[in-house]
Each structure stands twice: as C-alpha cells, then as structure tokens.
Specification:
The complex is a heterodimer.
Chain A lengths: L1 H6 L1 H19 L6 H26 L7 H17 L4 H25 L4 H20 L9 H5 L3 E3 L2 E2 H19 L1 H11 L1 H6 L4 H27 L10 H11 L11 H20 L7 H33 L8 H13 L1
Antiparallel strand pairs in A: 1-2
Chain B lengths: L8 E12 L2 E12 L3 E6 L5 H8 L7 E6 L2 E2 L5 H7 L1 E4 L11 H6 L6 H15 L14 H14 L4 E5 L7 H16 L3 E5 L3 H7 L2 E6 L2 E7 L5 H9 L22 E10 L2 E9 L3 E5 L6 H8 L5 E8 L2 E2 L5 H7 L1 E4 L3 H5 L6 H6 L12 H15 L15 H14 L4 E5 L7 H16 L3 E6 L2 H7 L2 E6 L2 E6 L5 H9 L1 H6 L1
Parallel strand pairs in B: 3-8, 3-9, 6-7, 7-8, 13-18, 13-19, 16-17, 17-18
Antiparallel strand pairs in B: 1-2, 1-4, 4-5, 9-10, 11-12, 11-14, 14-15, 19-20
The chains are: A mainly alpha, B alpha/beta.
Function (chain B): Part of the ABC transporter complex LsrABCD involved in autoinducer 2 (AI-2) import. Responsible for energy coupling to the transport system.
Family (chain B): Belongs to the ABC transporter superfamily. AI-2 autoinducer porter (TC 3.A.1.2.8) family.
Organism (chain B): Shinella curvata
C-alpha cells in the first residue's frame, strides 16, 4: 500500500487533482468547463516545456538552472531576426539553434570538462541573460509580426498550433524515455553512474545529449512565450527554472536521478497551473498564488519523504536480517545457550 | 569433478606488468584458465589481486603483457570490450540500479530490448534454479540476489569467463551453498571461473586449481589437491620485507596491563552477533578477521553509530545502555574510523580544526583559535606530522600524515579506550612504523586499545591478545601463540577452528 503511493506519484497527483477539481467545481459553478481546460493548457505550455527539459537533465543526476535564460536568449534571437526581416521559419530555426548551442555549451562543461552542473549552469544563467541584454541593447522587443502571434491563435476546440506541437512533444518524450534503448540510458546514468559505465553505457554522451535536449526545449518555450505574449521583455523566462524544478519534484522526479516519468511531470504542470485558474474562480486574490502553490508542494513532499523513510528502514532491516537467518553452526548455538544459562 | 561440456583454454594472461607511478603492483603475471575450470585466486592485501582483475575486465590498462579471451586479444581497456570478448567480472559489491526493475538491470547495455531478452533471461533463471522476480524493483533485492543479478548479466552476455570477486563475503552459509550449486552448473556448461576468496574452506569445496599472488608475483600455482592449507597460507602470508623498526611487544611489560576498562557481553547488531570481549588498561587487543567479518559494524555499534539488538556494554563500571558518539567521547571511548576520507577527516578544513573537532562541543561559545593551534602544534611535534602549518587543509597531506592527524584528533579527547579501525590502511612504511610506535606508547600510558586490522602481520606485531571475528560471529581467541598463521587459520577457515 505504501509502496503504491511511493511509486505512483502520478496516481496520487491525479487523485488529489480530481478531488480538488470536484471541490472547486461544487463551490464555483461554471469552473468545470471546456474553456477552463483550454485556458489551463495554453497557460501551462511554457512551464511544460521547461519542466520537460529540466526533467531529462535531472534524470541523469544533473541539474540545469539556466533554462530561464536560454528561453530569454532564444526568444530574443527569434524576435531580432524577425524584426531584421527574416522569414518566420528561418527565425524559428535560428531560435532553436540558439537553444541547442546554449545546451551544448552546458553539456560540454558538465559531461566533458567535469564541472558540477549546478555551478556550470548557475554561471550560464547569468551569462546567457547577459548575452540577451547585449543583443537587445536592454530594450524590449515589440512589433512582432502577426504570423508569429497566429501560432498561438485558436485553431478550434481551444487548441493552437503551439499547443499541438507541445503535446506532440510530450508524447514523443514519453515514447523516447520509456520505449527506446537510448532513453533507458538516461535513467541508468542517473541511477548508478558507475554501474552504467561498467555495462558499456556511453555515460558522457548521455549527459551531453540531456543538456542539448534541455536547451532545445527552452528555445521552444521561448518561441511559445513570444507567440503568446506578442512581445519579448528583458526578463522573459526569469525564474521559470526554479518553478520547473519544483514541478519535477512534485511530479515524482527524484533530484538524485534515475526516477521520474513524463506523465508525472505532465500532471504536476497541469496541477500547478490549475491552482492559478482555480483561485480566480474562488475569488481568492492572486497574491495568494505563490503561498498556496508552495504549501501544496511542501505537504506532498513531506508525506513522500516519510513514506520513503519507512521503505528505506524496511529494506535496511531486511538486509541485516540476512545474518539472523540460515543454518546456525551448532556449536555457536550451544555457546549462546551456556551464556543464557550463566545469567 | 563434473564432465566438461567444452574443453580448451578460455582465458590466457601472459606476462602482465602494472605499476602505479613508481610502485610496481604486478611483476610479470601469467595465468591460464580452461573451460569448466574453477580457479582460485588468493592473495593478501596489496598483493595485486584487484589490479589483476581490473586489467582482465578492461577497467584499467596494463603497462605491458597480453590478454586473450576465447582466443581473441583484449586490445582496449573498456569493460564493454572485455564483455564482448566473453569475460564478465562479478564485483564484490554488485552494481545495481536501484530504481530499475530486475530485468532492466540485467539487460542494460545490451542491444536487444529487455522485452525481447526476457525469455532468454527466464531460461537462465530456470537453469540456475533461482527464484527471482524479474519485475521487482532492484532496490529491494537482498545481497545474495544482487549477486545473482550480476551473474545473470554475465550469462546473458554469453560470458565464457566469469570472475567472482569474493562472492561469499556477504552471504550466509545457506546462501553460499546455493551459490556453489550454481557455480557447479556453470562449470558443467563449460564456463571458466576465476574465484577470488579469502576463505580456504570454500576454496577447497569449489575450486580445482589455485594460484597465490604475493607482491605482484604468482608464488604458487597448480592443482589444489597437491597443496596443504599450511602451504597455501604460508605462501600467501610470508612477510617479504622485515619491518624496519622490528620491535615487538616485548618493549612493554605485561605487568603494565591494569584493570578492565571495557567489557562487552553478547553484543549483537547489524551484521554481527553475540560478540563478547574485555579489554584492560594498557592492553592492545587485536580484533582480526577478513573483510566483511563484521568488525567495523561491531565497532560502530560500540561507538553508538548503529543500533544494537542485544547485549550489554560496561565501561569503567558503568553500563552504557544508550550510547551516542557524544556520550562515548565524553566518557573516553573513542573510535578512529576505517575510512579516513569519508568518516574521519574534514578534508577542506584546516588541520587544527580537525584536531579539535572531537572537542568542539566543549569549547567556549567564542572560539580561541590560538589555543587550538597550540594544541595542534603539540601533537605535530610529538607525532612528527609533516605539514606547512596548522592552517593547512587536510586534503593536502599524504595518507600517512592524514592518519596521524586523525589519531591526534582521537587523542585530543583523552581516550581511556581507543578503537582503531585499520589505522595503517594506505599508509607508507615509514609512517606505519611511526603509528606502531605511537600505539605502543599509548598502551604504555595506560590506554586500552582495540586494534581492528585485516593485516595479520600488524596484529602479530602489536597485539597482546587477539580476538578473531568470522562471518559476523566470534571465531576464536589467541592469547599466547599469536602468529600470522594462527590468526589466518581462525579467520579463513572459521568452522574448522571452532570445532578444533
């Protein structure tokens, strides 16, 4: 029973989410509707992409805190090339290449130069934001062409082009991580690096690839951001990396690497975004958002920590019980008995 | 023995040389392994066993020499390459991915998917007659099961050569029997096995040929039947270099041994059970045994780091029921841990912080670094610690000097009973002699010392009395006739000794 809850964060989240939805729906009629769902999904896209990328890095037992800056930098490249007259598809290619290059630089430092990922990405968090500011001269990028904004426009049923792309990417990531050999390597490297190396897994290449994938996801998030908002402020994406890490933890991705699923991250993103929309319906002032999100995150984690402790204690007890079992040499028994008798 | 399913040579090592820096560890080792042969590989600490294994399995490269596995040469130092040629190393501690399923653990790194390999793995599991839930999470596996996972990894890679590195060190006699049955099955299938172990009794049971490694050279090799236990132990433990300061315990008079300090009765805990011992002021009690005999667990339980499940500990007449390291330190029961990098030193901190760290809870709120530095300087001159000054970071010192700092830390707490866990591991000869002198001096000053060591020479040189632990239990005691051979007999072949 405990095992089920510890292992199945997705199930836990869905149950909590369902209960929460039912309660909110009861108190605020009109909340449970197609339009709410569409709002929640489109609002969640940026966080979804950043969290997905962060998850891939965390799986390999690294961390990336630079994705917010990569988002900003790629969005700036997108905006600047559009305003310089580049076509939309060419600008998108530039944008994604920027993200991939930024991720590759992170990956180079971590996987091949051996710099701890938290240090490397804290450095590039500042560096990439700085490059963005230099490129834009510190100004916001406005007057983006209509073609870009149309990507976030409703195509029907509340779905936009970017929504379709992001959801497709989520499915793709799920298939890749669950169903392919290379995907399995990401889990293996984070779970036990020495074992993975011992069994012939290309550890460094896996770590490097994870950072490139994260950079690409962040660039795509920059594109979604620009398309949804219609302009690119200096601080685009600022702080989203920490929110993404929190989402990962909530979604059952272990910061120690090796565990976590796309489904968990997906549900956690929906969960966090739903809180925002629910508060509006419950007429709770928006400044309560962070407090409530933080409180929920902490309570889930505290509960989870307790469960894990109990399981660890059981495993430990079982391990040392090895010495209590098995045939005991007969003379040893008699020693014990004489000792008992002597007392 | 069993009929061979296949014959012929499966592994050949020719003239392997290896040195780390200027220190040679392997000096021209040659070995051959036939199909269906279980070949015992013995050697003491530092004999070069683990280097030889790492070279064979592609973890590190050799300086020179040739390795052939199934008549193909091992050309690059990579574990994957060695596995491809058909050699698999089952390490002493299984490499387990705790969050993956058992099946995924077995199949990781192979081209085919776990699902495709499942029938084959199931067949191997059936052939070995083990019960293993392939869908369980690996974190929950017991040690014996983890070993099975490693063996299955080798088999699923079609290994013709398996290296089993002390496979029974964490197993109960029952599990050991089951493992041996599996080894015999593999043998019948023509798999060649290098069996590394410290336990002569087990080697007699399962192996047909033996090679003994000492100081990087094979000193004995051939059919196991033609050697007696005594010959093997002798070949393994003959002291090569007579210690420079060859003083023995005759320097101290036995009359100096005083009243009992610590008395342990029937102590049981994680990894050991029913251990009783006494140690008196001024006495050095050697606690000998092979790796995994439960000595460190015992010491950690004594020091209050692990929970005890039964038994009593009486220190200076007071029953220490609820122990914590703080209580032990304050009373004068001090433990020098085995792993100085992980449990002993604060590597980034200055040396004088390290030395005063056992006392830090007694220091005033506003620290007096001057006094701490002075204390360090006292130890520095009395112990001959080589460093640039009290402010140097511990990381920068050599192993021997780090060990001295660690000892100084223990002494700063003014111990009455000092537990030394492998005090000279990874320490050069000169520093080792300094440490020996220091231990003798401490005993002469009336400190009761429990010396845990896997180096039987060390125990022979220092101890007044020896307690041997084997398989987590008491393996016997020696008072008068303390010799490497006698200790080895108790530690390696515990059951014979206990019946004797």
């Amino acid at each position: 029973m405990l095992d089920l809850f510890a292992r199945n964060r997705v199930a836990t989240l869905i149950v909590v989410l369902a209960v929460a939805y039912a309660a909110i729906g009861a108190t605020a009629p009109g909340y449970l509707s197609g339009s709410t769902a569409s709002v929640v999904i489109s609002k969640s896209l940026v966080l979804m992409l950043i969290s997905l990328g962060t998850m891939i890095v965390i799986l390999t037992r690294n961390i990336d805190v630079s994705s917010g800056s990569v988002l900003g930098l790629s969005a700036a490249v997108l905006g600047l090339s559009l305003n310089a007259g580049a076509g939309l598809s060419l600008a998108i290619v530039f944008c994604l290449m920027t993200g991939a290059a930024a991720g590759a630089f992170n990956g180079l430092m971590v996987a091949y130069l051996g710099i701890p990922s938290i240090v490397a990405t804290l450095g590039t968090l500042g560096l990439y934001r700085g490059i963005m500011l230099v490129l834009t001269g510190g100004r916001w990028i406005e007057d983006l062409p209509q073609g870009l904004k149309a990507l976030a426009g409703n195509l029907g049923f509340g779905f936009s082009a970017v929504t379709v792309v992001v959801l497709a990417l989520v499915v793709l990531a799920w298939v890749f991580l669950r169903k392919t050999r290379f995907g399995r390597y990401f889990y293996a490297v984070g779970d036990n690096r020495a074992a993975a190396h011992h069994l012939g897994v290309p550890v460094r290449r896996v770590q490097f690839t994870a950072f490139v994938a994260t950079g690409l996801c962040a660039a795509l998030a920059g594109l979604v951001f620009a398309a949804q908002i219609g302009f690119i402020p200096n601080q685009a994406g600022n702080g989203v990396e920490l929110k993404a890490i929190a989402v990962n933890v909530l979604g059952g991705v272990s910061l120690l690497g090796g565990t976590g699923s796309v489904a968990g991250v997906f549900s956690a993103v929906i969960f966090i975004t739903s809180i925002d929309s629910a508060l509006v319906f419950l007429k709770i002032p928006a400044y309560w958002n962070d407090f409530i999100a933080g409180a929920i995150l902490l309570s889930v984690l505290l509960l989870d920590g307790r469960i894990r402790q109990i399981i660890d204690r059981r495993i430990r007890a079982r391990r040392y019980a090895v010495h209590e079992r098995g045939p005991v040499p007969s003379d040893e028994k008699t020693t014990a008995q004489t000792l008992e008798a002597g007392r | 023995m069993t009929d061979q399913a296949a014959t012929g040579r499966v592994a050949q090592l020719t003239d392997i040389w290896k040195s780390y820096g200027a220190v040679p560890v392997l000096k021209g080792v040659s070995l051959a392994l036939q199909a269906g042969e279980v070949h015992a590989l013995l050697g003491g600490n530092g004999a070069g066993k683990s280097s030889l294994m790492k070279i064979m399995s592609g973890v590190i490269p050799a300086n020179s020499g040739a390795i052939e596995i199934n008549d193909r040469a091992l050309t690059q130092a990579s574990p994957a390459h060695a596995q491809e040629l058909g050699l698999y190393l089952v390490p002493q501690e299984a490499h387990i991915l705790p969050n993956q399923s058992v099946l995924e653990n077995i199949c990781l790194g192979l081209a085919a998917s776990p699902r495709a390999l499942r029938p084959r793995v199931e067949q191997l599991v059936a052939e070995l007659a083990v019960s293993l839930d392939l869908d369980a999470q690996a974190a929950a596996l017991e040690i014996a099961e983890r070993q099975i996972v490693e063996i299955l990894r080798g088999l699923v890679r079609d290994a013709r050569v398996l290296i089993l590195d002390e496979p029974t060190s964490a197993l109960t006699p029952f599990e050991t029997n089951a493992l041996f049955q599996r080894v015999r099955k593999l043998q019948a299938q023509g798999v060649g096995i290098f069996f590394i172990s410290h336990k002569l009794r087990e080697i007699r049971e399962i192996c047909r040929t033996i090679s003994v490694l000492r100081d990087g050279v094979i000193v004995l090799s051939g059919p196991l039947d033609s050697y007696s236990d005594a010959e093997i132990i002798d070949a393994m433990s003959r002291v090569q270099i007579t210690e420079a300061s060859g003083k023995d315990r005759s320097g101290r008079k036995v009359s100096q041994i005083g009243q009992p300090r610590l008395s342990v009765r029937g102590l049981s805990g994680e990894g050991f059970r029913n251990i009783s011992l006494d140690v008196r002021a001024g006495e050095i009690l050697g606690l000998a045994g092979v790796v995994g005999a439960g000595r460190t667990e015992f010491a950690e339980t004594l020091f209050g780091l692990r929970p005890q499940s039964a038994g009593s500990v009486v220190f200076d007449g007071a029953d220490l029921k609820r122990r914590s390291p703080r209580v032990c330190i304050d009373r004068g029961l001090v433990y020098l841990p085995e792993d100085r990098q992980q449990h002993g030193l604060f590597l980034e901190a200055p040396l004088f912080w390290n030395v005063s760290s056992y006392l830090v809870h007694r220091l005033p709120f506003f620290l007096r670094p001057g006094a701490e530095r002075k204390m360090f300087e006292t130890f520095r001159s009395s112990m001959g610690i080589k460093c640039t000054g009290p402010g140097q970071e511990a990381r920068g010192l050599s192993g021997g000097n780090q060990q001295k700092v660690l000892l100084a830390k223990c002494l700063s707490a003014r111990p009455k009973v000092l537990i030394l866990d492998e005090p000279t591991r990874g320490v050069d000869v000169a520093a080792r002699n300094d440490i020996y002198d220091l231990i003798r001096k401490l005993a002469a000053d009336g400190v009761a010392i429990i010396l845990i060591s896997s180096d039987f020479d060390e125990i022979e040189q220092l101890a007044d009395r020896v307690k041997v632990m084997a398989f987590g239990q008491s393996g016997g005691e020696l008072t008068d006739d303390i010799s490497v051979e006698a200790i080895a007999r108790l530690a390696f072949g515990a059951s014979e000794a206990r019946h004797a």
